Description:
The chain is of the alpha+beta class and 446 residues long. It has helices at residues 5-13, 27-32, 263-266, 300-305, 307-311, 325-328, 334-350, 365-371, 381-393, 425-445, and strands at residues 19-22, 66-67, 87-91, 99-104, 107-111, 115-118, 127-132, 138-140, 145-150, 156-157, 172-176, 183-190, 193-199, 210-212, 221-230, 248-251, 257-261, 291-294, 318-322, 354-358, 398-399.
Amino acid sequence: MMKILPVILAIFLSLANFQIFDKDESTEPIENKNPRNHLTQDSSNRQQVTAQVLSVSEAAPKNVTINHTEEKVAEEIPEVEPEEKIFRLTWQIVPRAVKYKISYEGKTAVSYTNGVEIPIKNVNNEVLIVALDFDNKVVENDVVLLSIEENPPAPLTTTEFDKMKLSPVYVVYSWIPTINADHYEIQLFKDGELFRDYVTDFHPKDDNFDYYDEEPMLEEGEYFWRIRGIAAGGAPLTDWSEKNPGNTFTVEKPAAFCALGDSITHGGGSISVPPSTVVYNWQNYCSIPIKNFGKSGDTTEKMLERFEQDILSFSPEILFIMAGVNDYRGDILGWDSVENLAAIRDKCESYGIKPVFITPTPLNPNLIGKINFIHRPPYDWQEQRKYICDWMRRQENCIDIANDFSDENGFLRADLALDGLHPDAEGKEIIGRAVENWLTNYLNSK
């Protein structure tokens, strides 16, 4: 028994997608560990393609998932030794949760995704999952497990394209991280043929769970993507993930109603949840399908630059434009932002597209400073934002949501955004409902 203890310890310390610590020391790692910024996609935070991989492997064998709705793991799974068995646990995303604390066998772990891979000695023992916000306050106790897999052969994809009315133009790939994976290879297929092939850059292992595709999906066709873990030496560590409705989508043209914007339009929220899921996607709260042309990190200038390439190929009737946050949280003056927005308006009108502006949401510098991975906005950001909002209100078509998001100081309401920048689910619903109301009135008036 003593001979295998070092092996067991090594396995526990090498977990790839979360931290393990003794129960008595559980507070410190949770408080000190911050995820990277998975929403703004500032240049310093982007994952980069490090290589192009030419080989294409066969799809991984089918995974067997055990449905699980109790606090304890299903009894059908036998007791196992930790050096022999790995189990992947999954659960629903909890709104406003930044991370999850998993307690099991006298140990605790932290995961920034709604799933984790972990070696468990006896899966019949109690497993408790608690959802936490950024301040480690409990958002939900006893989060219910959805599934558990024994020795998963491949990463589990978490994209929810099957829940989206229309696929996004800028796709984000997301997954449950794999134990011991140094990085990942991602392959995108179009109509059954390899279309794009990426290798992700290295990130802290518990923080490498999404990849933002910089190239838009403009060609019609049927797509699906898959992923496999790669070891530090470059050899494949896992099989390829399996094709399923959540990682499959179709691009069709035209799209009557489209939305141009930055990360707030792109999706994502609560710091660590990427745009590949629908809970923080405002289009999800609008019953009328809207094509998502949001791109995280975009300024008004960047949106203007990609107008012809992205928008025109879908021939929209209406283009909703929500832009400016990344301008006034940086060093771009409202005057310059309005010049870019006016140019987008003029392009729309010249191509027979009706532009509809949505006033950009405010910031909350106090929350931004507290979280400390988004740059603090300049002192005059409110003045620059007001200039943009006032201009939008003078346009022929404007959806004014500014007051719905502002507190008594004109800051972004703390109850609507954990990070002081990106509205959470409730905030995204406000945007989606406002767009739906405007669009319903427009369609009824035709």
